[in-house]
Design brief:
- A hairpin with a 6-residue loop joins β3 and β4.
- It is built from seven helices and eight strands.
- The structure holds zinc ion.
- Zinc ion binds next to loops.
């Protein structure tokens, strides 16, 4: 399965990673693949060091790559920067999926467990066996542990899961490679 990521999403991702300046750098990179850092700096009227910092950060997470070339006039080595669009879809998917997986696990354990809690935020909730070992007293404050109704928490988790799933659908457009290949013919 190949993902088509819209340019707006890529710019949004750059913004998430480094704010407005990072988003502006990404806009230029998408418009002009192979652009060198000096040109980005002069177009955006930014300090070259800030531009390089942003480029390296985006390179570190694997959504950019560069080519070493030699400037024809000055003979200096220059870096030509490109956006790796295929890598971006992977980056978004793995990270969103990680968050989704974690939430699903948490939701499962909330649904399947009965917790005992003193009712003070930040104090631990214990499972039945753990609560019994402590004679149903909170290990932090010593107050009695009561069975905790986690219905609200479950609802909140379910809501959050749906939100992320929706965002993931909006951010990515699924198309099968076969469909794209067929369109080419
Ligand atoms: Zn407590």
């Amino acid at each position: 399965m190949l993902l088509i990521i819209e340019k707006e999403t890529i710019i949004e991702l750059a913004r998430l990673m480094g704010g407005e300046e990072s988003a502006n750098v990404m806009k230029i990179l998408l418009k002009k693949p192979g652009i060198v850092d000096e040109e980005i700096a002069s177009r955006l009227k930014m300090d070259i060091r800030d531009v390089r910092k942003i480029l390296h950060r985006l390179n570190e997470i694997g959504i950019l790559h560069y080519e070493l070339a030699r400037d024809k006039e000055t003979e200096h080595r220059v870096f030509k920067w490109y956006v790796q669009e295929e890598q971006i879809s992977g980056f978004i998917l793995t990270n969103m999926k990680k968050i989704l997986d974690r939430l699903r696990e948490k939701l499962e354990s909330e649904r399947n467990s009965q917790y005992y809690w003193c009712g003070v935020l930040g104090h631990p909730r214990l499972l039945f066996d753990e609560a019994m070992e402590r004679f149903f007293r909170c290990p932090t404050c010593g107050n009695p542990l009561l069975s905790h109704d986690n219905e609200e928490l479950i609802k909140a988790l379910e809501w959050k899961l749906r939100e992320i799933e929706r965002a993931l659908e909006e951010m990515t457009r699924f198309k099968r490679i076969e469909e794209i290949e067929q369109n080419k013919k």
